[in-house]
Amino acid sequence: MPIPNYTILIVDDNSNNLFTLRTIIEENIAARVIEAKSGEEALRILLNETVDLIILDVHMAGMDGFETAAIIKQRKKMQKIPIVFLTAACITGEFKKRGFKTGAVDYLIKPIDDNLLINKINVYLKLNKKDFLLEYFKDMQAIILEREEELKRKNEELEAQKAEAMEANRLLQHYAAELENTNKELQNFANIIAHDFRTPMVNLKGFSKELGNALADLKQILQDAVAHLPAKVQKEANKLIGQDVPDAVQFINSAVDRLDRMIAALLKLSREGRRDMIYQQVDCNKLIKAVLLSFDHQIVQKGIHVAVGSMPTIETDYLALEQIIGNLLDNAIKYLEPSRPGKIDVFCLDKEDEYLFTIQDNGCGISSQDQEKVFEIFRRGGNQEVPGEGMGLAYVKTIIRQLKGKVWCESELGIGTKISFSLPKKPLGN
């Protein structure tokens, strides 16, 4: 059974309806399902549980769905939870108006269409994840705003000094204005991130580069300008232009570069999820040798022993399998334990209806709690000091799913990690 990633609250005063909803959800979505048989019970549950989605029956004895939704939306920590109404009645315009007014995002009519229910649940869970990313971007903006306020305060301190500091203050104010423009660019980026990833990122990267170049030019001018000021003023001004401002620019550059990598990885993941697979006969022995050749420098440099078992010739997409093996080998190499000789085993078992591939290493290993998240986007397990954005295994999972296979992880801290994946002998997509 898939590991639950989300929590869904289903509310209905009919036990049969609750059983049906739970069965449909648990068979199709990795989610923890909580049941409530009344609006009052649902409110009590929400006081102690973090819920990603509420499926709420409209017509219930006692407190109905409209009343329950209205109370939920009055509580600040629950306002962003999407609510989908269930109803057996005909949905009129007035019915919709009342529902949306109380906070519903959608309706489903009984009897429930399984596919429609699952599709809607997936949509609203993904929207919740997108909201999380937007909150991250807002937090980043808050940090930059805090730095900007700190710079402004230091400008005011300089302005309070003797007349000789006026020119330096003017230049610093000019720089503060440029930094404010940068912040506006970041605010615009956060506002349109849901619709357009690339354009704001390109603008930010270019502007940050110009800002860094401008800082290099201004640094000598500012140092000359404050040379005749009192020692205390010189010290504060030199710290500002020599450390604080460059640190702020470096922070912006680092954040932009990381976001750019994350967006590029997301776009790559999205494209791979839509690519049509081209099935052909693939000699896995030759493919794995070719992939290992691309890692030859790292393998030799680190003294890694790589053992490859007998491999079959299978019907699959060559590029997809090459990317799967490449990502898994890259992970195995990166997470080897430097204190002992590295060892990587690659082998395949010929099962009745599928091939079972395994890449096993004697690296640092992954804790049991981290194993649950290694295949999630932007989630990583093991040594967090190893460079990466947490996209490799998510990418592998997407490709394997396209090939109608499965992937899983077994690991023990200090012992090593084993990643296995299965591919059907007769691809359903072919």
UniProtKB/TrEMBL annotation:
Residues 137-192 form a coiled coil. Its main location: membrane. Residues 7-125 form the Response regulatory domain. It comes from Methylomusa anaerophila. Its EC number is 2.7.13.3. Gene3D superfamilies: 1.10.287.130, 3.40.50.2300, Histidine kinase-like ATPase, C-terminal domain. GO terms for molecular function: phosphorelay sensor kinase activity. It catalyses: ATP + protein L-histidine = ADP + protein N-phospho-L-histidine. One of its GO terms (cellular component) is membrane. Residues 192-427 form the Histidine kinase domain. It is an enzyme of class 2 (transferase). SUPFAM superfamilies: ATPase domain of HSP90 chaperone/DNA topoisomerase II/histidine kinase, CheY-like, Homodimeric domain of signal transducing histidine kinase. This is histidine kinase. The modification 4-aspartylphosphate is found at residue 57. It comes from the Bacteria. Keywords: Coiled coil, Kinase, Phosphoprotein, Transferase, Two-component regulatory system. It is found in: Membrane.
